Amino acid sequence: MKVLVTGGSGFIGSHLIEKLLKNTNYRIFNIDKNLYTSDKFSIEDNQLKERYKFFNCDLIDKRKIEEILFEITPNLIINLAAETHVDSSIDNPEFYVDNNISSTLNILESARKIYFKMNKDWQNKFIFYHAGTDEIYGSAGENEYFNENSKYNPRSPYSASKASTNCLVQSWFHTYKIPVIIGNSSNNFGPRQFPEKLIPLVIFKALNNQKIPIYGDGEFVRDWIYVDDHVNAILKIIELGKTGESYCIGANNLITNNNIVQIICEILDEKLNRKISFKNLISHVADRPGHDKRYALDTKKIKKETNWQPIYSFRSALTITLDWYLNNQKWVDNQLSRSNYNCERLGLKNYF
Known about the structure:
The strands form three sheets. The protein has a seven-stranded parallel β-sheet with strand order 3-2-1-4-5-6-10, with helices on both faces. A three-stranded mixed β-sheet has the order 7-9-11. Strands 8-12 form a two-stranded parallel ribbon. The protein has helices spanning 11-23, 40-46, 62-72, 86-91, 93-115, 120-125, 157-176, 198-207, 227-240, 257-271, 300-306, 314-327, 329-346; strands at 2-6, 27-32, 52-56, 76-79, 127-133, 180-185, 187-189, 212-215, 221-226, 246-249, 254-256, 282-285. The chain is of the alpha/beta class.
């Protein structure tokens, strides 16, 4: 079994590859352009694995991507590669169109060319899995939950680019009969997440005694899923999901930004015996444009068809995450030093 993971050096991808190397005998191939959010340290560790090979390549390079895919002829493609930061997509939407939409087109086209050159037995086992996001559905109303049949209503350049990639993937199934599956996930968190995302950013700001920013009134609701639960969901969908279908992946941890920041501060206060609470660093800042009020997913389909369930409670997963950042502050410093160069080169804001 040969598995290609695009974006395998990113947050979710590195956790997925680690699990595959540990729990299977698959040969794993990783295509990643290794930019500012990539975890280069996990790449260095995995290079020691005989079943792992890394390709430092941008999916924008159509010729090179096709060359790599024909070299390895993967039985399974897990497409995780994407730029995911909403704030930077507002600053530089063209970058998100190129890196999310055009890149997805290139990997789909290379997969299609391989698919029709292979025999029927190979074709019957091949799967193209595409990682989506709940943000494609836009903002959910109070007590509303989006499901697989909900209308797409993206409200930021990032979510619009991801909605577009879903449409591309679905069309390759209907037009070319390529066996694809889509998983639309809620907000992920866990160890080794780059500190532009809310949870690691709050941890970083608190530990460095900097103001902890919260957009607007802070009453924006998100469903948080621990990265290991998401990885397990991906593998369950690939094993038991139906081609041509999409699946909503969430843990039903619906929490406001205000509450999640308060909880992080409380846990850090306790762990570090803080006399003056980290809560005093909380600062509300001007809201960003197009900020969705609430995300919420109905996950009955994935649970029914694959028997997947999240394992971790929110509080226990958050504690694991906090402990990791407390014990790996050097990793954060190294990642941020790399980001200074890459953010400037890409014309993106540096949020630190």
